[in-house]
Amino acid sequence: MKNLLFLGLVLGLLSACQDSTEHPEATPATGLDARLSFTEARAPTKASALRLLGQVEVPSSAQWVVGPSVEARLVAWEVTTGSKVEVGTTLATLVSPELGDLASVENELRRVVGQREKNIGRLKESVDAGFKSSESLYDAELSLSEARAQLQRVQQQLGVRNANIRRGQKSQWEWVSPVDGLVTDIDCAPGGLYSAESRCITIVAADAPRLRVDVSETEVAKLAGYTPSARWMPAGASEAMSLEFDRRSAGFDSVTRTQALYFKGVGLTVGASGSVELEIPAPKGAVLVPRMSVVEVQGTPSVFVDKGGERPEAVAVEDVGRSGEDRLVTGIAVGDKVVARGAFALKSALAFE
After folding, report:
1. Angle at CA 75, nearest 5°, toward 72 and 78?
2. 2-45+285-352 is classed in which CATH architecture?
3. What single string gives the DSSP state of each residue in 232-296?
4. What whole-number distance in Å separates Cα of residue 130 and Cα of residue 249?
5. Which of 30, 33, 143, 151 is at 20 to 30 A from 286, Cα to Cα?
């Protein structure tokens, strides 16, 4: 009767403890063994040091909030919020009376310079033939120099006013991007008159977004001597992103006593927030086992290892941390076959023996 009660209790515990640990491949058997699944202890690469919250932000030095370099009427935007741009990408089309006037003056001066250059060519022939005096040639060359100087001044003015603006079709001008990046905001409506002081468009440098994680003074000690990486899970995302360490703030915030750590990677969305796991190199000699493999047996963290006997044996381990959802332990070797599901039932069975 005692044996029947014991068997019933074990089977009941097994039914209540169907944990969802991965790698569940059991060999068909009977009784208690039929309820067990095994996995091999694996070599880790990283250990989870801290789990915190983080937010993606952009340094102010990597944002361009600008208007057209010259006063102009905005005809139409050629980009939208979220557009990726490169240096020279057309942002908008403009109409600028000031640029139009300067361009007209430039064209007229180009015509004048060209005409005077031709006149000098003819004058030189006349001087050589004795039909004209050298003084008339000197006056013509002086007149050409003056026209060239005027053209150069106008072109300089166009260059200053023309920063990031190029000629478009007909009387319109194209306002172009000064950087590679992402358009994050557009504030100026078509039809309005805007200038360099206007905050029309915000462009964030393509590689500028960084994940910021504020780490308390006590938690920073856990990272001492290591350069952490990060696993970033934005709110609402289904998969985590691996990010590289970029930099840390010079010191601790005087009020919060936290230090900001920044991480970089592809696909960061400005303003996104979520959970972050800071990872450091795994302790030497540690192996990875499923979280539910580690149970306490007589007050000692243990895992059950298949050593070829009738039943897996409890082996004392040191629980030294975690990597994702798995545990990092020492005391067993890579490749050891450990119980992935049913460890709690085995522990309970041992308690009745």
Report:
1. 115
2. Beta Barrel (2.40)
3. EEETT-SS-EEEEEEEE-SS--TTT-EEEEEEE-TTPPTT-EEEEEEEEEPPTT-EEE-GGG-EE
4. 80
5. 33
| Residue carrying structure tokens 């985590």 | 240
What is d(CA 100, CA 168) in angstroms, rounded to the nearest whole number?
12
pLDDT at 141: 85
The DSSP output letter for 17 is T
Which among 293, 289, 295 is positioned nearest to 323, based on CA atoms? 289
Q: Classify domain 63-205 by CATH number.
A: 2.40.50.100
* For residues 269-291, average pLDDT: 91
User: Nearest CA to 97 among 27, 161, 33, 186?
Assistant: 161
The CATH superfamily of 49-58+209-281 is Efflux pump adaptor protein, beta barrel domain (2.40.30.170)
Q: Return phi, psi of residue 37, to 5°.
A: -130, 155
Contacts of 275 (CB under 8 A, 6+ apart): 51, 52, 53, 54, 232, 233
Under 8 Å CB-to-CB from 249, ≥6 apart: which residues? Answer: 259, 260, 261
Rounded Cα–Cα distance for residues 243 and 266 (Å): 8
Task: Give residue 342's pLDDT.
Answer: 87
How far apart are alpha carbons 299 and 1 in whole angstroms?
A: 30
DSSP state of 212: E
The answer to whether 241 touches 257, Cβ cutoff 8 Å, is no
> Is 0.70 topped by the overall pTM?
no
Tens digits of residue pLDDT in 229-253:
999 999 998 999 999 999 999 889 9
Q: Which residues of 142-165 are buried (b: 16+ CB within 10 A; e: fewer)?
A: eebeebeebbeebbebbeebbebb
